[in-house]
Amino acid sequence: MLLIRCPYCEEERPELEFRNAGEAHIARSANMAGESDDDFEKFFFIRSNPKGIIYERWRHMHGCARFFNAVRDTVTDKFIMTYKAGEPKPAKLPGASK
Amino acid sequence: MIAAFRIPGAGRLKQAETARFSFDGQSYSGVEGDTLASALLANGVHLVGRSFKYHRPRGFLSAGAEEPNALVEIKRDSARKTPNVRATVQELYDGLTAQSQNRWPSLSFDVGAVNDIASPLFSAGFYYKTFMWPKAAWKKFYEPKIRAAAGLGVAPDQPDPDHYSARFAHCDVLVLGGGAAGIAAALAAAETGVRVILADEQADFGGSLRFESGARIEGQDGFAWAQAAVAKLKGMDNVRVLSRTTAFGYYAQNFVGLVERVSDHLQNPGRELPRERLWQVRAKRVVLATGAIERHMVFADNDRPGIMLASAARTYLNHYGVAVGRNIGVYTANDSAYAAAIDLKKAGVGVAAIVDLRDNPTGPVIDEARALGIEVNFGRAVIRAGGKLRVSSMTVQPKNGGGERTIPVDAILMSAGWTPSVHLFSQSRGKVAFNDETKRFVPGTYVQDCVSVGACNGTDGLSATIDEAYAAGAKAAKDAGASTVKGTKPKVDASESWSRGMLGAAPGAGPGTTVKAFVDFQNDVTAKDIRQAVHEGMHSIEHVKRFTTNGMATDQGKTSNMHGLAIAAETLGKPIPQVGLTTFRAPYTPVTFGSIVGHARGPLFDATRKTAIHPWAEAQGAVFEDVGQWKRAWYFPKAGEDMHAAVDRECVTVRKTAGLFDASTLGKIEVVGPDAAKFMELLYTNPWEKLEPGRCRYGIMLREDGFIYDDGVVGRLAPDRFHVTTTTGGAPRVMNHMEDYLQTEFPHLNVWLTSITEQWAVIAVQGPKSRDIIAPLVEGIDMSDEALPHMSVREGRICGVPTRLFRMSFTGERGFEVNVPADYGQAVWEALWAEGQKLGACAYGTESMHVLRAEKGYIIVGQDTDGTVTPNDAGLDWAVGKKKTDFVGIRGMARPDLVAKGRKQLVGLKTKDPKVVLEEGAQIVADPKQAIPMTMIGHVTSSYWSQNCGRSIALALVAGGRDRMGETLYVPMPDGTIEVEITGMVFFDEKGERLNG
Ligand SMILES: [Zn+2]
């Protein structure tokens, strides 16, 4: 079981308290009704599913109940960092060699 | 009476304390502290099982967890039958009953042994090759036959009456393995004051100190030192010592799963004791002190009962006081077997000869063996063993060929060297490295915060082991935050040490095609099988493993992996590291389902939710159904009524008079704040800004893809306060969905969301007399149609307690939903029930609720919709705000496929024969005469007998359904085709007059 740091609680807590909520940094359009079919497809259906670093949303379901963002390596399952919802994608990852 | 092979004065058990036990119906006597294995050996019993594939007679190979052969069934009573218990691990208790497995009719005469003669049929990959054709025969014929003929134990056929417990634990330093290394590491860490857990799979700590008679630490015998050190650790507040506890899995971030066997060793475990306890431990640092496992020699018929690992024979002698034979042969490529021969010789047991594959080894143990008068042969191999049910001889030959000599023996001790137990290290995702000099894989690259010490790290000798382990324990404690380091390292006075050994097949392993030189005893894999796998093109060790099943049995190849790898490498002509080691996976040893399941079974499997009105319904004899975690009253049968009669009566009574229904399980969410209406506009398809406080609206919630996600009636209590209801099953995900949008997409909105499902009990009162039932109990609410029209909500009091009184209907009748604080739910229900009784009302359950709503064509999300239904498909376009510029789903709903013609639409269905009730889920076709497979154009979503309509009614999703009104379609069923007519969805009171009736 993984340990995940909640950026709101500022604590590492067991995975059991959390729930994954899909890929992060996919903004909902302010003009949703006017989106083209292609743009809607990109927004709703297309996910990066990388081998390696993924930016994803988690919710501290059985804790503070807040949604936040996490950077995880899909190869090792390691959480590299977490940050609050609404904060930009981190420019630099801690311990990243490349 | 002392058993025949128990040596008076030898070993550590109190030989006076006896225990009776039985094996295959025969009664024996053992000694307290014995394992089943040592007790059987004390009685001269070696034959304890038949092998998996060839049904060959098998005895004990080991004295520990690595045992591949001696698997037995332990039976406490008819329900407590545990198969595949390793007799070398099972502790003896008075009255223990064990049985051998995989033999018929008896262990000494087993019909299945014909497989041994027919073994050419069962060569490597035989499952893959033999049973590929015809394909259909695999499932029907081959698989059941193979399953019946192969396999080991028989699974119990009754529910497990034992209980299992579970603990989470955190510590600074977790030490896995309680031999000399583990104890030294634990001492070093514990003395700093940090929290330490020390676990070992055995009943007694000490590891190989159990048999190493030459070890002396701190002026005492090594095993005695271990007991004293563990006693000291147990006395420390910061230390938890777990014996009989196996670390079976090493997971991410130093999370380790352990199983503690709490009561399998007890004669009468009380009900208060769990059988096993699962420990899930999170450790800042882990010290792996898992030791090493001795390997056998690979030669012809090396599986005869009486042939075992040298260290096992030594353990049986030095710990249990048991001689494994009277005239013992030794076959080795390693010094450690000499120590076994020396110990046995000194105990008065005959040692016929030592056969050493090495050419000219030297060392003190060799000198000592010679000095004791033991015959020692160098450069020779045991090329086969004689005997069947018990080894009777060993045939020796110079290793490069030459004259044979057969020596009578009743046991052969083997040692090909020691394999470091890197299982847990490998599970931690660490990478092993091959040491070419010592021919072993040792921990290489670490991935987690752990360290390996002692034999599992390839460290030889007791002094070096304790030096390394003590330093590692202290460092782990320091890394985990310890500041003070005190205590002193245990002093080693004398130790044993031995050199390498060999990997792979010895000269006695072939190259013949009929020779059975076993590599993997549990899966019956021979040296020949591995060579054959390579010859047939398996060049990766992972393929060799799967093709031969080497290392894939429940012992996970603890004794076989390295031999198998070496034989494959030799056949491939490649160095071992290039062939690679297969991956180690959890569990290290088999784990019971019970320990994983723990308390989560029966009533504790999942939470059971009951409404405030549940006890009343139960007292009334309601039949309940499970809806998610909820228990809901399904129907209320009167004496003599079956379900149909009860539901018919309930449905008619509601429309004629009135009925009470417990709707408390409906999800309820309060949406509050200055931007509450704006938020509702975004989350629901409907317009909300203009809804007057005091009024209600039926709301539809979509996902972003435009499909219906949930629905429910929403009441606006105040400009900034909405009382939202959801489906019973949808409550948690709707709450999550709302929170998600509020927190991450619309965080600028000033809104609070609160789940109030549990806070309000809901009593639906429906029917023409509903107002008459409620009105006498209500204060502060004008109940007239003018003041409280359909789809409105008022706050007031009922029976003196606060209420949110909704005028709404899920039956098509005049109706109300009375919300009261849950604590008053049953009292208010009883008051309403008393009023209802006066007028002839009934209580009705979920089945009648379903029928009544279907008569009106009201949909149930999740039954009439399936996640691919749009509001338009469901005929709910009217509930979508046409002027709205945004809501969740607005764009998805407009996707080309979702607005295309011919989509499945919800319609009503009437069977041509009104008495026929369709099956929900039944498929619909336009032409019943078409060829199979037919083109299915829809399916039935809801179907009931409607007593109010005097006929069956159904809802269905049908392609282009609304353009097919009046069309005849067909529902093909196994016993005939049913004719149906497409109709509107409202079957009763089409004009809706009864809402105010
Ligand atoms: Zn949190």
UniProtKB/TrEMBL annotation, chain A:
GO terms for molecular function: sarcosine oxidase activity. GO terms for biological process: tetrahydrofolate metabolic process. It comes from the Bacteria. This is Sarcosine oxidase subunit delta. The lineage of its organism: Bacteria, Pseudomonadati, Pseudomonadota, Alphaproteobacteria, Hyphomicrobiales.
Automatic annotation (TrEMBL), chain B:
Keywords: Oxidoreductase. One of its GO terms (biological process) is tetrahydrofolate metabolic process. It holds the Pfam family Fer2_4. Residues 172-437 form the FAD/NAD(P)-binding domain. Residues 516-596 form the SoxA A3 domain. Gene3D superfamilies: 2Fe-2S iron-sulphur cluster binding domain, sarcosine oxidase, alpha subunit, N-terminal domain (3.10.20.440), BFD-like [2Fe-2S]-binding domain (1.10.10.1100), FAD/NAD(P)-binding domain (3.50.50.60), Probable tRNA modification gtpase trme, domain 1 (3.30.1360.120). GO terms for molecular function: sarcosine oxidase activity. Residues 904-989 form the Aminomethyltransferase C-terminal domain. Residues 613-884 form the GCVT N-terminal domain. It comes from the Bacteria. Belongs to the GcvT family. PANTHER family: AMINOMETHYLTRANSFERASE, AMINOMETHYLTRANSFERASE, MITOCHONDRIAL. This is Sarcosine oxidase subunit alpha. It comes from Mesorhizobium tianshanense.
